Amino acid sequence: AQxxxxxxxxxxxxxxxxxxxxxxxxxxxxxxxxxxxxxxNQGLQLxxxxxxxxxxxxxxxxxxxxxNKSQTSFHLxxxxxxxxDTAEYFCAVSGRRGSEKLVFGKGTKLTVNP
Amino acid sequence: xxxxxxxxxxxxMGMTNKKxxxxxxxxxxxxxxxxxxxxxxxxxxxFVYNFKEQTENNSVPSRFSPECPNSSHLFLHxxxxxxxxxxxxxxxxxxxxxxxxxxxxxxGTRLTVV
Lengths: 114, 114
What we know:
The complex is a heterodimer.
Chain A: E1 3-5, E2 10-14, E3 19-21, E4 24-26, E5 31-38, E6 44-50, E7 56-58, E8 64-68, E9 73-78, E10 87-95, E11 103-104, E12 108-113
Parallel strand pairs in A: 2-12
Antiparallel strand pairs in A: 1-4, 3-9, 5-6, 5-10, 7-8, 8-9, 10-11, 10-12
Chain B: E1 4-7, E2 10-13, E3 18-25, E4 31-37, E5 44-50, E6 53-57, E7 64-70, E8 73-79, E9 87-94, E10 104-105, E11 109-113
Parallel strand pairs in B: 2-11
Antiparallel strand pairs in B: 1-3, 3-8, 4-5, 4-9, 5-6, 7-8, 9-10, 9-11
């Protein structure tokens, strides 16, 4: 079985500052990794995912995450955040076998202040 | 709009009421899920349906009763709920049971039990 640990429940930052949201996973098998974002009063939206190939994956709005197998991590980063990035971010993991479901972390609430 | 529609968006019900939550997707997905999202707790997977058949029930109390009449619609029937059942209920769908394609979430129903 897989598990996900998001080390920070809340991360406050100032606008245009860099941010890193940490995610570590535990699994005995190869995994797929995902980041979802939840804006206020909305459901979760897929932000980016790692399936295979390049360990660095990017989203369309400037976020990136790097799969680090040796450290079992998939941290999310953005070099310069905007007020509109304020949301809750969820890391998720799935085993690579056919019927594996997503397992979500507890989420990290990112607040970007002016 | 994500392609997964949940109604109603908000619901207030008494502990003796009976109500239903509705989820609809026209993405051609075959798997559908109900999640419960409570404040300060991780996402809780409640039920999983694949091709209209329930494949998972995560020890959910019987006061929650799911129904999946076809691959496009999913209901959650509620009766004699408790105040601790107040939460955001999220519906999600995916192409199949493999998580590789990711899940598409609805915006949720905010349920308040009084």
